[in-house]
Write a structure and sequence with these properties.
47% helix, 16% strand, alpha/beta, 5-stranded antiparallel beta sheet, 5-stranded mixed beta sheet, extended
């Protein structure tokens, strides 16, 4: 963002937002043309006119009209706020307050996020009783100095600045301080801030400290963004580029501090909510992505998380040979189901030998998740767990999409006959077992089978019928 003044030479570059201060009416024309020649993104003026609009159109630059009562200083402040929380591709960074609420959900506590000057940046909502330290911190948007002094004397801040270790602060009833845990937020060795979790009416969750460690790593890009440095969206784009082949593994590994020659795996998650409000579904998916990011970062610092096509993808690099990915994935799904009150499914791709093969792991996980969405009532699976179901599901999808390779006689069966025939075929021709499953008399089933115009003595007819009926 630049300020253009009629008395000064134009100093504007491509992509700039230019504020035309002190230039109204025809006096703004030369500045608009200069901004257009420099390929500025937009110019802001007070008291626009048809002449200025035409000049901006001719110059190929967007024209923003600012109301006369708006102070330029206020507009500049607002615009800077937008620019410093937006990535290069126009994506707005996630809300710190939403992140604080996610951390509160995972830890079972009352959360506040502070910068290195102990200024409160965001905090979670809570129906629990808050202690004096939190109350004064939020009301004053900064911790009260007497309390901060005590924390310094106890060595709390030294521990938070020195590394990622979760610090425990015991309850001090005489000071109005409840038990809490805290962790420093870092970019390398550079401290960025602190996450505080106060214990409420109930004890903190069993996995609170682990969740807090992951939360610190997820929060770091948000705080870095406030210093005009790369954002978490950049990491999401890295994963998308790797999985689609637009970026090589060595480049991605260099950006996230991973070893491209070590094993890696991809896990894919999906929310299986019932039909309803689309916005509610999107909100749940966003909450799930935040929850997954915290868990993944706690498991691997170099983990990448990205959303695509309604699914959440997680890349876990630098894996040990005995990495317990299934247990991690089940923990995430269980936590998501408990806190989001909706069904979540996850497919774990195979562990590949190097980061170069991450796309293979992703494709495998997608195949499993596709099958789970169609006809598998499971929450977490690998291809080895459900290989037969995945293969049959993919065959059925081909049948569904290609009517010419289906038998029209089977398509024409009424629902009662179709259900009876499938039960008979699934029972390997055992009429009594199939009748029991259908809750009918065996003679009733025999009568229904005689009505079907198919040679059921032919194994190929039975094969096609069974597949086609499963598709129905």
């Amino acid at each position: 963002m630049v300020i253009m003044d009629p008395d000064d030479p134009p100093d504007v570059a491509a992509g700039d937002l230019a504020l035309l201060i002190g230039a109204r009416g025809r006096a703004a024309l030369p500045l608009i043309r200069a901004a257009g020649r420099a390929k500025a993104a937009a110019v802001a003026v007070k008291e626009s006119s048809q002449t200025l609009e035409q000049a901006a159109t001719d110059a190929g630059v967007a024209l923003l009209e600012v109301r006369p009562e708006v102070r330029w200083g206020h507009l500049e402040s607002l615009a800077k706020g937008v620019l410093t929380t937006t990535t290069d591709d126009g994506e707005v960074l996630g809300d710190l307050f939403a992140l604080a609420q996610t951390i509160a959900t995972l830890t079972g506590g009352i959360v506040s996020i502070e910068d290195t000057a102990s200024r409160v940046l965001a905090y979670s909502r809570s129906s629990d009783e808050v202690d004096e330290l939190r109350r004064l911190s939020i009301l004053g948007r900064q911790g009260p100095e007497p309390y901060l002094k005590m924390l310094r004397e106890w060595g709390v801040y030294n521990l938070l600045r020195s590394g990622e270790e979760v610090v425990r602060i015991d309850e001090r009833p005489e000071l109005g301080i409840r038990r809490r845990i805290a962790v420093g937020i870092h970019a390398g060795r550079q401290p960025l801030g602190t996450i505080w979790v106060q214990e409420g009416d109930q004890p903190l969750a069993e996995q609170a400290e682990r969740a807090l460690l992951g939360a610190a790593r997820v929060t770091a890009p948000h705080l870095i963004q406030q210093r005009n440095q790369p954002t978490s969206r950049f990491r999401e784009n890295l994963l998308a580029a790797l999985l689609t082949g637009r970026m090589d593994a060595a480049t991605v590994a260099g950006q996230i501090g991973a070893d491209p020659k070590k094993p890696a795996a991809v896990v894919v998650f999906a929310v299986r909510s019932a039909e309803g409000d689309r916005s509610e579904h999107e909100l749940r998916r966003a909450e799930m992505t935040g929850l997954i990011s915290v868990h993944a970062a706690a498991y691997r610092r170099s983990a990448l998380v990205s959303e695509s096509g309604g699914r959440t993808y997680v890349l876990l690099p630098d894996l040990a040979p005995n990495a317990q990915l299934l247990s991690l994935t089940r923990e995430i799904v269980t936590t998501a189901r408990r806190h989001l009150h909706t069904a979540v499914q996850a497919a774990v791709g195979s562990t590949v030998s190097t980061l170069d093969d991450a796309r293979i792991s992703r494709q495998e996980a997608e195949r499993v998740l596709d099958a789970m969405a169609r006809d598998l009532d499971v929450e977490v699976a690998t291809l080895a767990d459900v290989r037969s179901q995945v293969l049959v599901s993919e065959i059925l999808a081909l049948l569904q999409d290609n009517p010419r390779i289906r038998d029209p006689r089977i398509d024409a069966l009424d629902p009662e006959l179709a259900k009876s025939l499938l039960a008979y075929l699934d029972a390997l021709g055992d009429v009594r077992a199939a009748a029991d499953k259908l809750h009918v008399h065996p003679n009733t089933l025999r009568y229904r089978l005689k009505r079907i115009d198919l040679d059921l003595d032919d194994p190929l007819v039975r094969l096609i019928a069974q597949l086609q009926l499963r598709m129905r």
